[in-house]
Amino acid sequence: MKKRFQKFVPRTEIYENFIDKLNITTSVIEKHVSESFGFAVAEDIYAPENIPGFDKATIDGYAVKAADTFGASDGNPALLKIVGEVFMGKEYDGKPINPGECVKIPTGGMLPEGADACVMIENTSQIGKRVEIYKSVAPGENIIKKDEDVKKDSIVLKKGERINIGHIHNLMSLGITKVKVYQKPTICIIPTGDEVVEPEKDRKLTQIRDGNSYALMAWLKSYGYNVKRHPLVKDNPDEFKKGVEWGLENGDIVIISGGSSLGARDYALSTIEHFGEVLYNGVQVKPGKPVIFGKTENKVILGLPGNPTSFVVSSYLFLFPIIRKVAGNIDYLPKPDSIVRISTNVPAAQGRERFVFVRLEYTEKGFIAHPILGESGLASPFRMADGVVRIPLGKEGLYKDEECEFYRF
Ligand SMILES: Nc1nc2c(c(=O)[nH]1)N[C@H]1C(S)=C(S)[C@@H](COP(=O)(O)OP(=O)(O)OC[C@H]3O[C@@H](n4cnc5c(N)ncnc54)[C@H](O)[C@@H]3O)O[C@H]1N2
Ligand code: MOO
């Protein structure tokens, strides 16, 4: 990562040469499993036992030998002898069942020895100590095998996997109540611009209120990340430096909002160079061209464009993957959520991969994406959108009804 690039590069280059190679991760902490949703696990976890651990009935009825029911029907029922009953949470205390015998069993009960299937109570009729079976069952039918949910010694969580509710359920069922995870990163946001004012303040005609930092804070918090916001920074190098210094002391990832372009008062580049190394300065993406990628020994500093649409798209494409990487996730790059059809022709951006905000409509033919076009200086396109579709680099555009990748925001 020594070489510094000043040219605009494709998004994939940032992924391969900046994000994939980032060797910064947050510290490892122990969490109660019930508090671990969304964290990346910091160790491989193997199952110490089978789940459920016993062959289990999935219906209320009778535990049988399947072969005894073969050919059974309403007109020709199988007749079995009831030799006992299984109670919930208890092992069957009778003898293994023999051909011609069956045992009453509740949903969730442990299958008695000798039985290999269960028959639903609705398909039977009890006559004293016998039962008529009107429907045959195959071996294994209406049963969960003892290792069917989780097999002893199998891997339940791979280091770097994001913990989901299924993992939490499995871990708790296995009696594993604590888990080592990577701490969620802290992101420090520094909103900049002489023209930018606090939202609760009155503004002059030429001023704008800070939407960027508050929108990003809310978005990051929705994923449980820690966020800190610096007060507004004016367009001067000292204020930029103070802001970034604060960010480096207080967070893992520092974001400068605005001032990343080429204007005389755009100080993001020189400030990042002051504190660390700038690896890339500009990407072939629209919106979101002037993104600056920098790092110090153990922190990331990003300069994001001030234009609202560019700010949001570059956050989605670059900031979020960086956060996921730093948070220990093995799966950190964005992936399309689905393939949709575009409702109208949309031109590409010359020499840039283009992302277009769309609203999705569900029709009989599947999802149709309606573009919400507008300049990168607007915020309403993403207010009205479900996400973006992608026009790959080098493609001249999307034609009406053409399939394209959709990314949900
Ligand atoms: N000569 C060139 N000019 C520009 C180029 C270029 O290549 N050559 N690139 C354009 C592109 S593309 C973008 S994107 C913008 C990015 O500019 P900056 O990152 O330097 O951002 P600012 O100039 O600070 O602001 C742009 C725009 O966004 C508004 N803004 C800033 N902060 C906020 C905030 N917190 N909340 C809401 N809106 C904000 C700001 O008022 C400006 O209107 O550069 C083009 N120029
Ligand atoms: O690339 Mo700028 O990010 O178009 O607005």
UniProtKB/TrEMBL annotation:
Origin superkingdom: Bacteria
Stored Gene3D superfamilies: MoaB/Mog-like domain, MoeA, C-terminal, domain IV, Molybdopterin biosynthesis moea protein, domain 2, Molybdopterin biosynthesis moea protein, domain 3
InterPro entries registered for this protein in UniProt: MoaB/Mog-like_dom_sf (IPR036425), MoaB/Mog_dom (IPR001453), MoCF_biosynth_CS (IPR008284), MoeA-like (IPR038987), MoeA_C_domain_IV (IPR005111), MoeA_C_domain_IV_sf (IPR036688), MoeA_linker/N (IPR005110), MoeA_linker/N_sf (IPR036135)
Pfam family, one: MoeA_N
GO molecular function list: metal ion binding; molybdopterin molybdotransferase activity
Cofactor: Mg(2+)
Organism: Marinitoga piezophila (strain DSM 14283 / JCM 11233 / KA3)
Record family assignment: Belongs to the MoeA family.
Name of protein: Molybdopterin molybdenumtransferase
Enzyme class: transferase
Lineage: Bacteria, Thermotogati, Thermotogota, Thermotogae, Petrotogales
Enzyme Commission number: 2.10.1.1
GO CC terms in record: cytosol
UniProt entry tagged with the keyword Transmembrane: no
Function: Catalyzes the insertion of molybdate into adenylated molybdopterin with the concomitant release of AMP.
Reactions performed catalytically: adenylyl-molybdopterin + molybdate = Mo-molybdopterin + AMP + H(+)
Keyword annotations from UniProtKB, A to Z: Magnesium, Metal-binding, Molybdenum, Molybdenum cofactor biosynthesis, Transferase
Pathway membership, UniProt: Cofactor biosynthesis; molybdopterin biosynthesis
Gene Ontology biological process terms, A to Z: Mo-molybdopterin cofactor biosynthetic process
Domain MoaB/Mog: 188-325
